[in-house]
Amino acid sequence: MRIAYIMASVLLASFGCKRDDFQKLDERNWQLTWSDDFNGPAGQLPDSTKWAYDLGTGQDGWGNQELQSYTKSPANISLDGDGNLVITAIRSGNNFTSARIKTQGLFAQQYGRFEARLKTPYGPGIWPAFWMLGSKVDEVGWPKCGEIDIMELRGQQPHIINGSIHGPGYSGGNPVTKTFALMNARFDTDFNIFAIEWDKDKIDFFVNDFLYQRITPKDVSGEWVFDSPFFMILNVAVGGNYVGFPLPQTPFPQKMIVDYVKVYKAAD
To answer: What is the pLDDT of residues 13-37, one digit of tens each?
Structure first.
């Protein structure tokens, strides 16, 4: 597959960016290696040959003081019958349920382009993410396995996303990270494409094929741990140290709607 990155001047201007060498990307030639378009009847769970689940509350709220319990109930995760996957965070009194799926044990890849087209949820205390962990996580632990956050959003700031990496010496509240903001728009009102392009020298972060961040080994304060296969994760968390507690006015249910996830490798 061939993807050409040609950014119009009006687009650059709308984001307050200058046309410079940072945006002068070569034309890419990619070969599709993995994809899920989430086709199927409404209420069906995602393809079990492509996705596994994290379930329950996790020890210490998945390490982030999160409030939700993850389930595989169709109420929390299912296809909508229109070619989308829907992850739904639900409140029941003081309890919250949601879903977190991953390709761990089913698919991982070192380097390439990883992308998802999705619409985020919103509201204080809501934390959607499309991210990746190194496949060696069970062997070496976190953060030595490495983490790439392609997109995460604080629901109280629905027009801003972050792209980040975590590794030894730059993890938790001290990642290498950058924000990307929409002007006069929000990520919960329309679909957007979130992607990285990753090779041995760098990780590039994109929103709708606009490059807003490049991270190289010289940008990290510790060991560069991004030279092994990674698997993908999609989830919607509730609460946690990244977003804080949901407020009484936070609307529920909240839905992350995913049109597709695709992975490419560089063509020979």
So the answer is: 344 444 456 666 777 799 999 999 9
Residue 205: C-alpha distances to residues 6, 17, 69, 114, 115 (Å): 16, 15, 30, 10, 10
Indicate the pLDDT class of residue 76, thresholds 50, 70 and 90: very high
Q: Which residues are catalytic?
A: 147, 152
**Cα 111 to Cα 92: distance, rounded to the nearest angstrom:** 41
In 3-state terms the chain splits into helix, strand, coil percentages (rounded to 5) of: 5, 45, 50
Q: How far apart are CA 143 and CA 159, in angstroms?
A: 28
Indicate the burial class of 61 (C-beta count within 10 angstroms; 0-12, 13-18, 19 or more): middle
> What is the CB-side half-sphere exposure of residue 67 using CA atoms within 13 A?
21
Question: Side-chain half-sphere of 264: how many Cα atoms within 13 Å?
Answer: 18
* Residues 46/50/53/54 CA torsion (nearest 10 deg): -140
Do residues 222 and 215 touch, judged by C-beta distance below 8 A?
Answer: no
Q: Is 53 helix (H, G, I), strand (E, B) or coil?
A: strand
